[in-house]
Design a protein that fits this description.
It holds the Pfam family Rhomboid. Keywords: Hydrolase, Membrane, Protease, Transmembrane, Transmembrane helix. It comes from Neurospora hispaniola. The protein has 276 residues and is mostly helical. The protein has helices spanning 2-25, 29-47, 55-59, 73-76, 84-105, 107-114, 117-133, 144-161, 177-188, 194-208, 219-229, 231-234, 258-261; strands at residues 164-167, 170-173. A two-stranded antiparallel ribbon has the order 1-2. The longest helix has 24 residues, at 2-25. It is globular.
Amino acid sequence: MAAQTLPASGAAVTFNTQRTRAYLLKLPLFTRATVLIIVLTWVLTLVGKSWNWDVKTWGALIPDEIGIATLYRINTFPFIHLNIFHTILNIVAFTPLLERFEHEHGTLTSVALFFGPFATIPGLIYVFIERFILHANTPVMGASMWVFLLLGMEAIRTYKTNPYFTISTYNIPTWITPLLLVVVTAALLPSSSFLGHLAGLLVGYGFGLGYLKFLAPPEWALRFIEGKLNLLGRLPHYVSVDQKTFGRFGVLPSSASSAEAGIPFSGVSGGQRLGP
């Protein structure tokens, strides 16, 4: 019996490895670059210690440190993570969401949004509430704010086609699912930032409902840049505005289940705070 089960197990491992390798090879350009930056940033947090450079303190979103000269923190904090566990969890949770978004909306759109309103709006919301309402100064870092932003967009689209799911005799609105996940994450990971996750989720809801759609770059501008620079011909794994699989900027498709799309809901990491 042992001789029969070992080949089957080995075949399963080989099959899973092949699927994983095929998936990684199909990742679009911006998704690859983002994951690489996250990994390199983690390496810098280790190497920086020998240079007397604390990468976490330098790049984390620290409300009292935000000023004209330190606005870079709005774009650096999603790439910096507290530890290797935090890094891996956020990469696993964020990569399939970002990969789908880039394939559906194009590489240039992804760059413009994730280095623009997808980072600045939730980041500034967090800073405003921390500084002027809570009068606190809790640093945050990690890509989980982006995870909840994309989940919020997905939830709105799902709600439009499937408004409720039923538990026992109760109809639960599907748009509330990421909000419940924020609460569960806060309960399971007390060091996570509930406010940071909530800020990302609210922005995701706003984009999903179309209120912030005007912040997306216009297609004519994207086509002009792509044509002038011949980005599709020069950059491997680049997704042009005419290759995208889901019309104009909107929200993530919900035709596939989360399991088919590979979204590891159980692995969503908290936007870790800087310190315990």
